[in-house]
Specification:
Blueprint: E1 13-19, H1 31-44, E2 47-54, E3 58-65, H2 72-91, E4 103-106, H3 113-130, H4 146-149, H5 163-166, H6 172-193
Antiparallel strand pairs: 1-3, 1-4, 2-3
Helix pairs in contact: 1-2, 3-6
């Protein structure tokens, strides 16, 4: 049975994720390769990086593509290939770094996409915490969530605050206050499972 076609709708926000080959923790300590690879991609392709997080054996990104420009498939192909190339060169390894194709979903296609995205940002931010790699999403290996909490946060990649975040209020402080309510709700739900 052929695999289903990927939704590569352009001008949309995509949550994409990809696992390392054999679910091995190849990305532990690979922050440099991820940042360099995404930075290279941002220099040549037209898209907005909304979020990025490394979780040992997988990576999460939220990317908003641009109409009539590169598709999410092309962007992810480039990023994953550069990370694998840098990882193999640094470790002297050869072969696959990634499992099969990356997973993806279009945020605008879900019910209540604004609430879903704001929840998803915390889900991704807390992923390393759930895996025991961090104590707080603000202190993760990459810690993109700080871009949404501190207007002057310096980050090694260009992060674009999503329009759903910007709609939370008229000022940055008001947006942060409302965004933190999503963290509180997420932490309550997380506590049920731990």
């Amino acid at each position: 049975m052929p695999r289903p076609l990927r939704n590569i709708a352009q001008g949309k926000t995509h949550h994409v994720y990809s696992r390392c080959h054999g679910k091995r923790n190849l990305l532990l300590g690979a922050k440099k390769y991820v940042i360099e690879s995404i930075k290279q991609c941002q220099a040549i392709y037209d898209f907005k990086l909304i979020a990025v997080e490394i979780v040992g054996n997988h990576i999460h990104l939220i990317i908003q593509t641009t109409l009539d420009r590169q598709t999410i498939s092309r962007i992810m192909q480039y990023i994953k290939a550069r990370i694998a190339e840098k990882y193999n060169k640094a470790t002297g390894g050869t072969g696959a770094v990634w499992n099969e194709r990356f997973g993806a979903m279009v945020i605008e296609d879900v019910e209540n996409p604004d609430h879903y995205l704001l929840w998803l940002l915390w889900y991704i931010g807390y992923n390393p915490v759930r895996k025991g790699l961090s104590q707080d999403p603000r202190k993760n290996d990459i810690g993109f969530i700080n871009c949404y909490l501190n207007k002057n946060h310096e980050f090694p990649l260009q992060i674009t605050l999503h329009e759903y975040f910007l709609r939370l209020g008229d000022t940055f402080e008001e947006r942060v206050r409302k965004f933190l309510s999503y963290e509180e709700a997420y932490r309550k739900r997380l506590a049920v499972y731990f």
